[in-house]
Amino acid sequence: MPGTKTNERPGTRAVLRHYRMSASKARQVLDLIRDQEVGRAIELLRTTEREAANVVGKVLASAVANAVHNEGLDAEDLYVSACYADEGSTLKRWRPRARGRASRIRKRTCHITVIVDRLPDERLARRRAEREVAGGQRSRRVSESRRRADLSGRLSRRRHAQEEAAAAAAEAEAAEAAEEAEIEDELVEDAAMEQSAEDIVEGAEVEVEDEATEAEVEDTATEVEDTATEVEDTATEVEDVTEAEAEPEVEDSAAEAEDEPEVEETVEQPAKRRRRIRKKDR
């Protein structure tokens, strides 16, 4: 006994007639969604880049809407039970060719039919089981992710607390270091003040010593001047005495000087005689 014909299959259908596309082009897209669930078929049509995918998607959406509105079925329980494309009327057109001839242009059309029906109970049960397994896996994944999130949150809170503690410790250390620096600055200032006071005292002592040394120098200078004046006085006295003693000696030397020319004359006489004798000899 022959099986059920394609156009006689039960279900809710939608038909698009006289669409300006060849049936062979539409069949290539219809073969992708045949016996697929509605959700999977929509995904396939959405990712297909052929022109027929948009048209078939609209026909599929119309069939699903008819099933939901007219039959009261759930859209998630539907699948594409049958889909096919029949040839429609062909428009004849002519194109001029060489040597006065003409060639025929065939503008083909097609009728696209999509039939949706409720999934069999076996497939529904299998899908529910798969969804439950997937849901369990998802719940486990969610719980695991939540546990990880809680753990990461705890870790982040611990890390945050550790960071806060480290920041507080760093602030305390910085405050202690600042206090120590202030104390050191105060000590340095006190030492500088003490040193400056000592320098002032030492400077005063040095000034006093300099004044004392200047006074001593002045006293010694005055003493030297006094001694110099005394020496000058004694020198003048000595000169006076020497002059007084030298006056008779000078007188004696003057008298001797007066007597000396005679001697010189007596000394000069033999020299004159010698000269005279030399002139005579010449």
Q: Termini separation (Å)?
A: 203 Å
Find the structural class using helix and strand composition. alpha+beta
Number of strands: 5
CATH topology of the domain at 8-93 and 103-119: Ribosomal Protein L22, Chain A
As a whole number of angstroms, the C-alpha radius of gyration is 73 Å
CATH superfamily of the domain at 8-93 and 103-119: Ribosomal protein L22/L17
Please report the first level of CATH classification, the CATH class of the domain at 8-93 and 103-119: Alpha Beta
Number of helices: 4
CATH architectural label of the domain at 8-93 and 103-119? Alpha-Beta Complex
Shape: elongated
- In spatial order, strands of the major sheet run 1-5-2
Order of helices and strands: EHHHEEEEH
Mean pLDDT: 82
Which helices and strands occur, and which strands form pairs?
Blueprint: E1 12-19, H1 23-33, H2 38-47, H3 51-71, E2 78-87, E3 91-96, E4 102-107, E5 110-118, H4 121-281
Helix pairs in contact: 2-3
